[in-house]
Amino acid sequence: MKRLQKCCRSKKTLTLADVLKLVYPGADQSDILKLLRAVQEKTALEKELDPLGRVAELKQREEETTQWSSWFEQMWPYWDSDGNGELDEFEFKTVVRDIGASPADADTFFEEIDLDGSGFISKEEFREWWIGKGNCTSAINLQSRKH
Ligand SMILES: [Ca+2]
Ligand SMILES: [Ca+2]
After folding, report:
1. Is 98 helix (H, G, I), strand (E, B) or coil?
2. CA-CA to 143 of 20 to 30 Å: which in 4, 9, 44, 71?
3. What is the pLDDT of residues 13-53, one digit of tens each?
4. Nearest bound ligand to CA 86?
5. What average pLDDT does the chain have?
6. Residues 6+ apart with CB under 8 A from 131
7. Where are the domain boundaries for CATH 1.10.238.10 in the chain?
8. Which UniProt keywords are given for this protein, alphabetically ordered (predicted)?
9. What's the gap in Å between 92 CA and the centre of ligand 1?
């Protein structure tokens, strides 16, 4: 009876140490402790450094931005067909088509992007607008769905 109680109790409180003992039958108490400490330290360290999983999120965003930037650099000379370094309203129509937005939104976007109201969109204005939108693709998809 006592044995059974003991067994039940140990089953109820099956710890990581018990599991480790099963996995590493040859390990002695100090090995188990070392393993436990390693597991705990790793978890504590991860939680301390990145409690909400932000690092992964930022990394992904950074990757997306990098991908977008290289695409943008490739597209820019093509969009800026007269090569003056800025986009006029005519050139911008191609951009609108290429980013998959509705042509009906072209004027709205142009005004939004042309921050200094020069009538031309500079590379910096475009980049700022795009990155400022966060995930711009979904923002545009939402915009165009209205029409
Ligand atoms: Ca141009
Ligand atoms: Ca401008």
Report:
1. helix
2. 71
3. 677 778 778 777 888 888 888 888 877 777 777 777 777 87
4. 1
5. 80
6. 65, 68
7. 54-145
8. Calcium
9. 9
pLDDT of 140 > 60? The answer is no
Report the half-sphere exposure of 102 (CA within 13 A, side-chain side).
13
Contact 123, 83 (CB under 8 A): no
Ligand 1 centroid–CA 126 distance in Å is 13
CA angle 17, 20, 23 (to 5 degrees): 155
pLDDT band with cut points at 50, 70 and 90 for residue 61: confident
Which of the ligands is closest to the CA of residue 119?
2
CA 83 to chain centre: 33
87 CA to centre of ligand 1 in angstroms: 4
Alpha-carbon dihedral of residues 100, 101, 106, 111, nearest 10 degrees?
-110
Ligand with smallest separation from the Cα of 89: 1
Q: Which amino acid is at 46?
A: E
Could you list the beta-strand ranges (E) of 34-108. Answer: 86-87
CATH homologous superfamily for the domain 54-145? EF-hand (1.10.238.10)
d(CA 94, CA 85): 15
